[in-house]
Inverse folding.
């Protein structure tokens, strides 16, 4: 961990360098109209209850931090893990508080709070009325009724669950403490098969060729980081390679042709290329990169520097070629991005 004087010096340098390109910031007020923009999920510190949502308005360049509490009059809770839009609502998964807040997309006001989960992680909609929710402290995948916004059942998994992907009428579930990807038949709500891939898989994406990519992070003792590709017609791994550095945050361009992930810096790879041809487009330098997102229209890359995990994060915006465009200050431990497009 960096000493405070070094952190303060680094932060001051960032402020000076980017004063001319950073948008103005607003705190404690409700955004009057949520137009084209980017939501940032700020995890906050575990058991501090300081998770927040930031909103970057792409049309005006304004940043509003803590839009959830401003809209609702109470704090979001402990560790904002993820956010997804389903129909007219955002589902905000609050991991440490064991709940999912359902908010209206027009004014960000809560219309329902989903409880009955221990430590929820990610939500995957399967239809207008059904979704799956993974859980850190429950060896199961929760079944959600999206019409009533209630948990109606669960599917047993031998360990905790993380990422979700849907293809070929099957749901793929990662379990980072297991070497398997679990395959669920959503018509039966049952595990029907597994793929032996390796431990540590925290993120998965589908590409334009309908292949499933798996990114496994490293453990200093038991396993190395890796990237793997699965042919979902056979559910067999057709490509796998050990990576050079700890990795995470696998995401894909909107046309599903290019992979991006964090591996020391920000790495980019065409889905039609060998893994060895990946290129670092944004260097790590002195940054502590943590969250990663790719804009669905511009393919601009949003990446967060969380510094010491205590102060507010800085979100940097780069072109898809890796040229820096601007930056803005968000909340503590900015971990994810949701892009609102009209």
């Amino acid at each position: 961990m960096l000493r405070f004087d070094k952190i303060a010096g680094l932060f001051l340098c960032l402020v000076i360098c980017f004063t001319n390109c950073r948008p103005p910031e607003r705190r404690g007020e409700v955004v009057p109209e949520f137009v084209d923009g980017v939501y940032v999920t700020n995890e906050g510190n575990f058991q501090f209850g300081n998770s927040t949502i930031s909103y970057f308005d792409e049309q005006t360049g304004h940043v509003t931090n803590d839009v959830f509490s401003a809209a609702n009059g109470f704090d979001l809770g402990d560790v904002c893990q993820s956010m997804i839009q389903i129909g007219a609502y955002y589902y905000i998964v609050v991991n440490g508080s064991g709940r999912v807040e359902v908010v209206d997309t027009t004014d960000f006001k809560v219309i329902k709070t989903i409880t009955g989960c221990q430590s929820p992680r990610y939500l995957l909609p399967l239809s207008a009325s059904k979704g799956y929710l993974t859980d850190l402290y429950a060896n199961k995948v929760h079944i959600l009724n999206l019409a009533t916004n209630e948990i109606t059942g669960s599917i047993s998994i031998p360990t905790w669950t993380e990422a979700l992907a849907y293809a070929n009428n099957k749901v793929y579930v990662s379990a980072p403490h297991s070497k398997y990807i679990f395959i669920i038949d959503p018509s039966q709500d049952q595990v029907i098969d597994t793929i032996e891939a390796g431990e540590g898989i925290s993120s998965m994406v589908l590409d334009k060729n309908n292949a499933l990519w798996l990114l496994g992070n490293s453990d200093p003792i038991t396993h190395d980081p890796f990237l793997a590709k699965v042919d979902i017609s056979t559910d067999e791994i057709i490509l796998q390679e050990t990576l050079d550095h700890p990795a995470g945050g696998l995401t894909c361009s909107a046309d599903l042709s290019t992979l991006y992930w964090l591996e020391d810096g920000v790495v980019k790879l065409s889905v039609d290329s060998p893994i060895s041809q990946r290129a670092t487009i944004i260097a790590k330098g002195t940054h502590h990169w943590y969250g990663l997102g790719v804009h669905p229209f511009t393919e601009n890359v949003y990446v967060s520097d969380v510094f010491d995990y205590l102060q507010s994060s800085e979100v940097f915006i780069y072109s898809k070629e890796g040229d820096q465009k601007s930056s803005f200050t968000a909340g503590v431990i900015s971990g994810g991005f949701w892009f609102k497009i009209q």
About this structure: The longest strand covers residues 324-332. Residues 1-20 have pLDDT under 50 and may be disordered. The chain has two helices and 29 strands. The first helix runs from residue 4 to 18.
